[in-house]
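Why predict the complex rather than its parts? Because the way molecules touch one another can change local conformation, and only a joint prediction can capture that. The input here totals 961 residues.
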Amino acid sequence: MNARHIGLIAKKELRGLSSEKTIVFAVLLQVFIAMFSSFLMVGLTAMYDPEAIEGYSTVTYGVGYAGADSALIDEFAKRDDLVLHRMDLGQALAALREREVAAVVYVPDTPPDAEGPVTVTLYLIQNDLQSSVINVKIKEVLQGYERELREVRADRMTSFPIGLNFPESGGAENFFEFVYGLLIPLLALLPAVISAALIIDLITEEYQRQTLEALMSTPVTFVEMVWGKIAACVVLVPVQAALWLLLLGANGIAVGNAAAILLHASVGGLFLILLAALVALYYRERTSAQFIFSTVLVVVFLFVMAVPYNPLNLMVRLAVDTVGPVHWLILALVAGATALLGWTVTTYARRVGEATPAAR
Amino acid sequence: MSLASSIRTIAVWEMNRSMTTMGRNVLPLAAGLLVLLVLVTMFAAQSGVHMQDGMYHIGIDDPDVARVVAPDNRFAVDLADGPALWADRLAYDIVILHGEVYVADTDKGRAALTSLERDYEAYVSRVATGEPDLFAAYPLWIDLQYVKSEIDFLATQSGQQVGAPADAREPPISSAPVEAVTLPPSAMPVSEEGLRQHLAEARSGHPLSRYTTINPGGSTMDRFKTPSELSAPLPFDSIILVFVFIFPLYFTSQFFMMSVMHERVGRAGEALLSSPVRPSAIVIGKALPYFTIMLLVAAAITLFAGAPLTILLPLIPVILFFLANALIIGMAARSFKELSFVSIFFSTLVTSYLFFPTVFANTHVISIISPLTLVVLEIQGDGFTAAEYVYSTALFFATSIILFYAGTVNFREERLFSEKPLTSRLADFVSGGISRDHPHLSLFLLAALSIPFVFMVQMMTLVLFFNIPMPLSLVLLIVSAAFIEEFAKSAGLYAIARERPGFLTAKNLLAGAFVIGLGFLAGEKLLLFATLAQITESIFGSVLFLSLGVLWMPLLLHITGVLITGGFLLLWGRRAYGPGLVVASVVHSLYNLHFILGGLL
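Output of the joint prediction:
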């Protein structure tokens, strides 16, 4: 293999990408998604952990209270963001429908030390963002009431949990786990998937457009051609991933060990690209190759996620800085597997190249 | 050959072709991969997801406490004696000494604390479930009831804050009629055994389990929860279902896109074009199998999810829209990689157009601009009226039909096999619709036909700017709406200037500007009659559709806009198109701004 030939092919493919402005589309997409970022942050965080949205609200909510007196009233009094209004149940529900109050609780006259349970009815507005916020707040109040009732009925219990004393958490909004535990590894993975789809396009195009013969008449060999395309795709992975990390940084999300994360993303990306190249060389037709590869991708992704110390997990650990030197070992393992796959691609490409490059 | 029979021939031929290219080698491997997928899923279910392992570092001095966090592999636990831990405390996010929790004062430490608190809750629940006296361990049960309430979209206009009531400290005075309600019974209608079983099935502490476990829902037992089981209702839960519908549709439309592309690669479609079949028959015949497949897939998912089949009705225009765009993209892309990128870009746009309004499914009238909102409503059992159906799908039907028409008109040799860049191909498509003999009539029609697209993009900006604070969102909306309209109006003129530079004289420009302005206004009027009555009443609507009031004023405005852009083109050539567009948009925005402010003050 001639490194200069590979470099030539890679440069040709990259130039093709920029002249077709496909990269522009990729960047536009990133900016477009970034435009939605505030919405996405709130929305996706809420999907990941609904209780996190409580931190957004600084408003005081009115809560309608109907039914018998109970210790629940005292629990509500401890909160300064919930104001209780005693009212009739029918009136309270009408006020809820008009959004004059944010929730209504109805408490029956069951005594605290009764044999059976105390069943509190909680009315909320259906399918509403505000209900999610109020739900979290009221949940905390109800948990306090539950603790109270448990104490009253403690003599009927047989075993007791270990006590832990938690400091006051302050109930601040909490993006941390979502951003570092999910968003960063997925964003680092995205460029790898895009590049893998790209290599399929590049290879199948040579076959389907019958431009292969012209390319083979140059001093470039078939294997060099394949590796040149692979090189072009691999280069894009760390560039795009770094762009994501920079965008995150611009939003005030500092990522630790960025270089190591990019290294993991590049090696993992190369693995996926080689896999895609293998599929493309086998089918030489875009529809089938893309179809098979997307299925392969799902299988690989599921498998990797189920293995402890997988590269995605390592990216999380690197981003939050809780990983020892063990990640170098994993990187070496993945790189080894990638090298093996690279050797396979080379051998297969040589075999394919030796057979006359037929049209299909 | 009649149209119907040639459509059938093409459709059958298309099916056979895709079956042979796909079938040969793909099916065995796909079957193998499916088996592999099942195996991997089983492995993943057993091993669990290891994405967030060891995110937090926790130091504990008591093995009993360590058992509390043991099930959660987000924590990397160090078990050591107290003084050693205290000396090393800076290396940990959390240290627990003698039952006292110490947290690092960082975002990470606070996140770790939240996770630990939940783990502790789960642990307390585990202990309590084993109690012989269930109602001593779980003395409090919550009966969760939901009440429906729709926000009036006009509420924002009168300055009322949507969300929290104006002053929560004041006792609410409701003017609404009070309905008689039956008081909830104080006795628990579910047996103790049932509750125990319910607790045993209860979820683990990890946030993602909400999506990995299937929630049957609906039974009386699930209505009753312990306080710690209360999880915030997601306004987005039914959205997951929506994605389940959209993704297969998108995937299938890819095959159609590829099939169109295939005709162009190496001039493979030449034989087809030289046959005595009309282009319309080719396009419809090729699209028909995919339309059928997509409909069948959607129906299968519907039946599988146990939803009513009526949700297919709002999905039909979405399917058509996907196919129409696949046709245009397949015809316009120069290479496979361009095809991939453009289709990814397009699908992101469409998905967000479909997805974001549905988030407000139950709160805003505006959400009905997405047909998927109708799907959500139907799944919830609320249903939709015929008027709502027309309202939310008209744009999709109109744009799909126009795109299909543009594709058919341009389904010709010189368009399909040219190697020009994407933008100039699209300009070719536009000029393909302009007749040489009646350019003014074509410009009129073009302007009228561009209206649905203009509305669609404006709707998109409306959704986009919706969560920005009020004065800013209004300004952004005015400017972007003006720009979009100016762009749509001048597109035809630009296409003509490109193809026939001699056409653009001062006289022709004046006449052209007049017909374009007229066509734009006519199209606007026509579509508005069919649809957007509800939105036009709100302040956002008055920004977008300002030109409804007096007729001659907007006509003049539209003509002026085209004249400005056209004048730039005439004087300084095609390079001046961009600046001309900007100037026209500024004039347009100033006009709109004047009317909005005049209307408000």
